[in-house]
Amino acid sequence: MDKMIRHLAGQRLMLGFNGTKFNKDLETIIREYQAGGIILFKPNIVSPDQVAALCARAQAYAASLNLPPLFIAVDQEGGAVSRLSPPFTQFDGNPLIRTREQAAAFARITAGELKQAGINMNLAPVMDVVPPGTDSIMKTRAFPGNAEAVADLGTTVIQTLQSSGIMAVAKHFPGIGRTVLDSHHHLPELDVELSELKAVDLLPFEAAVRADAAGIMISHILYPRLDPRWQASLSKAIAHDLIRHTLGFDGLVLTDDLDMKAIDQDMDVCMARILASEIDLALICHQGPDIEKAVMALTRQLSSDPKARASGRMCVQRIYRYKEAYLGWKKPDRL
């Protein structure tokens, strides 16, 4: 396999793994797959010292192979979605954050603890808008209030995290606050016009772009008025055209976890759609055969498609840019 193709494929993946220590699985993720990043969940985390040692070993191993440093991500929203248990500081969650001061305090304390643990990316904040009276899947995770309030609190979190050296990822584009089904188990559908999304749901994401959020995560929701065939995370119309052209975003675009039931496609199809949409990072959050399938699909398609290869280089250059900005890395001339 061509070394550059393998690198272009691997840097586009953010992968989960089993274990609380540096192990053979992480070695494979870094050495064989050359993954752009890893993602931590509760089973990977025992204590601040343990996770700091785990992250340091992973980064040292990547450096020993002359590979770029890893994005190391976690979902630390506070409240209902908190991967870091005590003694990490616990927060009540976004629904109880009502002021900029509260949002900034959450982000400042969280950023300090993430940085000390060796984590450099927070898959937060949630920027979904929950309409009053909606039994939304996001009701326990979203900021309270209308789109302007969500934008204000969310951008405070983004700016505070990033001023402390932690990349922030706004989610779940283009907005899932009105959905009542969980994409972990279903393929939810939101049948609304783009004009309605622009009037409400997109406003916080536009604010996130203005706040220079490092990343935006795409949902697995089907928006048939925008793309009748593909859910957002596999839709070029949403994951590329709407984000890059309409919103003017030039940061990192991430999928939600491709292990979710809302993605009922084989990895060849998923990776083809991700390449076509110029999504920067595909998340596969659980160890298993899907990881190797994704690596093989990406390498095959990058090898055979010059257009995918050209856009792939552009995506990896964007990944490098954030690794230089946040991870103290200088891209060597050979990359």
From TrEMBL:
GO biological process: carbohydrate metabolic process; peptidoglycan turnover
Gene Ontology molecular function terms on file: beta-N-acetylhexosaminidase activity
Recorded family membership: Belongs to the glycosyl hydrolase 3 family.
Record-listed E.C. numbers: 3.2.1.52
Enzyme class of the recorded protein, top EC level: hydrolase
InterPro entries named in the record: GH (IPR017853), Glyco_hydro_3_N (IPR001764), Glyco_hydro_3_N_sf (IPR036962), NagZ_Beta-hexosaminidase (IPR050226)
Protein name: Beta-N-acetylhexosaminidase NagZ
Domain spans labelled Glycoside hydrolase family 3 N-terminal: 16-291
Protein's organism: Desulfotignum phosphitoxidans DSM 13687
Keyword Hydrolase: yes
